[in-house]
Amino acid sequence: MSATTLTSWPGVVRAGRAALRAPFERRALRELLYVVSGLPLAVITFAYAVTMLFTGAGLLITFLGVPVLAAGLAGARGLGHLERIRARALLGLDVAEPEPVRALQRSRGPMAWMGATLRSGVSWRHLLYALLHLPWAMLSFTLTALVAFHGWLMLLFPAWQWLFHNRDRDALQFREGLQIGARSGQGGEVLDTPPEVLAVTVIGLLLVLLTPWLVRGLSQVDRMLVIGLLGPSRLATRVWELESDRGAVVDTAAADLRRIERDLHDGAQARLVALAMGLGLAKEKLLEDPEAAAKMVDEAHGEVKLALQELRDLARGIHPAILTDRGLGPALSALAARCTVPVTVTTDLGERPVAAIEGITYFTVSELLQNVSKHSGATRAEVELWRSKDRLMLQVSDNGKGGATADSGSGLAGLAERLDAVDGLLVLDSPAGGPTTITAELPWRDQ
């Protein structure tokens, strides 16, 4: 026996076991129940959809057609909701709720609701599902019933051959075997020999084993129908995401402006006011007490240096000059040098991304290193930056106590929202006891 045969034999055994178990697995039973229950529900939804559609269309010559059509579309959405529940329970298919009608309403009131319902593509897709699902449900039910019924009938052929020995039937005659193709006394072929009985039983077994795979294949079409017609559209989902991201960007920009205003008011502005007062007093004492005036000028000189340093720090917080001039590598090294924990920086970038992505990456590392300094209790940290195809990858890790969370309201949650606003991603791995590894992923956009 060759090595290839020995290697493939366990796989054949596993496949055989899976095929034998398939008819009795929960998944197969749930999918079978989905197909069987789908036909009566499809008949109800089809009848409802056709009735409401043609009634509303016929009444459009009067104003009554508009509310009838709107009510029909609303009912179709309700039936679609039930179909999503059925698909979730029996197929394990979790389809998100589509955008509500109120998202399209420009005002309140029944007229606005009817207009939004008629404009909603989701409502019409639900109606289309109700019309298309019936023929497919009939085909699925018929194929499943035929294959399952004949499979079990042929598989149990030896048992009922013995039970109904010498009894006639309309289409089948049991006379020490199975007569096929003619009524009693009119000829036909009788399957009564042991090889023929065995062949019928084997064919029945194959049909029984085929049934769950047939049902699974048929249910895949149902999955596509539910996802494509009863779920949210990709365009609407993208619009929601962009609206959410726009809100996050606006909130972040407003928070940054408030921070800059606070830093200017409490820092540099306060020092400059004190400096102006000190210089005014020094001017008054210049003739009366030159030594005191010189001392006050010296103190003012120190205040000027502090104010300049605070302004530099504030400018660095807005957009550091080193990032603009030299790129992410030197800028992150400068950040690491100011961190209270020893930080190793590794960058592998052949070229620079656009300035916006550079800025987001810089401030992401800045905030993460601040967390390392304040909360981690670490003795060392690492920053790694590299490009993977069309994504910019960033990883910050430390050997601290761990336990960091991205719960709502935390700094990491806000950071994740800011990254999401540019189609980025933040992944946190921080078990209790450490270490902590935070991976950020941003889109790469060339300059």
Would you kindly provide a written description of the structure presented here, covering whatever features stand out?
- The protein has helices at 3-21, 26-58, 65-90, 110-119, 121-155, 157-163, 194-230, 234-288, 290-318, 321-326, 328-338, 355-376, 411-420; strands at 167-168, 173-174, 178-180, 189-191, 343-348, 381-388, 391-398, 425-429, 436-443.
- It folds into three domains: 26-159 and 211-232, no CATH class; 243-318, Single alpha-helices involved in coiled-coils or other helix-helix interfaces; 325-443, Heat Shock Protein 90 (2-Layer Sandwich), CATH 3.30.565.
- The chain has 447 residues and is an alpha+beta fold.
- Helix content is 67%, strand content 10%.
- Strand 6 (381-388) and strand 7 (391-398) form a beta hairpin.
- The strands form two sheets. Strands 5-6-7-9-8 form a five-stranded mixed beta sheet, with helices on one face. A four-stranded antiparallel beta sheet has the order 1-2-3-4, with no helix packed on it.
- The radius of gyration is 37 Å and the shape is elongated.
- The longest helix has 55 residues, at 234-288.
